[in-house]
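help with this record:
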Amino acid sequence: MTAETPTQANRLASNTDDAVLSVRGLQTHFFTDEGVVKAVDGVDFNLKSGETLGIVGESGCGKSITAKSILQIVEAPGRVVDGQILYRGEGDEATGKSTDLLQLKPNGSEIRAIRGGEISMIFQEPMTSFSSLHTFGNQILEALRLHTDLDKSEMFEVAVDWLDRVGIPNPKQRMLEYPYRFSGGQLQRAMIAMALCTNPRVLIADEPTTALDVTTQAQILELLMQLKEENNMAIIFITHDLGVIAEIADDVTVMYLGKVVESGPIMSFFDNTRHPYSRALLTSIPSMYTESRARLPSITGSIPHPQNRPSGCPFHPRCESFIDGVCDVNEPMLSKVSEDQQASCFLYTET
């Protein structure tokens, strides 16, 4: 990656869409002693203000690494090796310019001002996301101190209010406690409060409701949708739960082995799923028409290790629509298959 340059030099002409965040050709690789692992291998998507993009796929498909790449917080030995992440800040709306976040130093002042402030993230593992040496109150107040102009008393009131809004009882008392006093579900809610307290323009939510009971999950999803409407907040919602995606997402992106295999509006996705992997995901979940005690269909095999990618289409060893001599030899490109859908599959090309 290139070194950080002045802000003016990082402003790039935006494309014709009105995306607040545009990811183009993102590649994030891990350089290990055993070889190069292509965790993210050419991901593209656009995110508009006031809309929710759902990113789905099995564990190991690159969803979380994509999210971390946006904020430049990929752990070593991983690093972003190619692509653009164009972010349009509040001051860029009138000019139509964007900032390529990958042109900023990972620890530079510009990306730190954006990370946690304008773009917040709810991490998948709440147990490892808080410092055990500081009270939770000190940690959420630090986020407010870095990204708001509030005084100390105002910050305390905002923090307590957010803890209450995410369903943590006795929020004033819990501000004084250390993270080990919180249960897993309470830590998850506390992390959600910390991510939302700065009123971000973009929220990246990585499995944000996994550790929560069904009732609390519904409350958190309702809160996110309310904030999206009130603040025109854009959301990237990463999950394996297609039921949640159907409820909250405007668009969906399906990932497999570091690549996007299908994308489009949520209604088109559920009404006319195109990629065989997407169809397999949908048929593997129960519906109201599923017979009692009936065995649910499952996807044959398991996702390959990114270091041992199959030749041709990465999904072909598990695909029921596999075309011998085509899918195992050539790799399909993500292309338009309908007016508003894209898929990477030879079923929809002349090849």
